[in-house]
Amino acid sequence: MSPSPLRGSDKAGPVYGLAQLTIRDRARYQRYVRRFHDVLAQFGGRLLAADESPEILEGSWERDKVVLLEFESAASFWAWAHSDAYQEISRDRVAATEGTVLLVHGVG
């Protein structure tokens, strides 16, 4: 995740990581998943959803999986995303998938 951790980091409130993924190498992606939860928990992140069969209500969706994460702040998200622990495991996700990852700021 290369965008600047400063963009939007001054906003208060929760943030959500939203990933829409196409899985190209299932075994390598599963290796990432096995290590993911422990690293996420170290930074106070929560896995809210991980769905390979979302209901498409409008439009089209050409991905295999959607993942929704919650963090208490943008600062905690960026601390996780740029941590040595996440950088180590994310190599498998990057190599095994393609897709879009968004950081969404909550309201309030």
Helices and strands in order:
Elements: E1 15-23, H1 26-42, E2 46-51, E3 65-71, H2 74-81, H3 84-96, E4 97-105
Antiparallel strand pairs: 1-3, 1-4, 2-3
Fill in the keyword field for this structure.
Alpha-Beta Plaits; 4-stranded antiparallel β-sheet; alpha+beta; 108 residues; single chain
Task: Write structural notes for this entry.
With 108 residues, this protein is of the alpha+beta class. The protein has a single domain (15-105), classed as 2-Layer Sandwich (Alpha-Beta Plaits). Helices cover 35% and strands 29% of the residues. It has helices at residues 26-42, 74-81, 84-96; strands spanning 15-23, 46-51, 65-71, 97-105. Strands 2-3-1-4 form a four-stranded antiparallel sheet. The radius of gyration is 14 Å and the shape is globular.
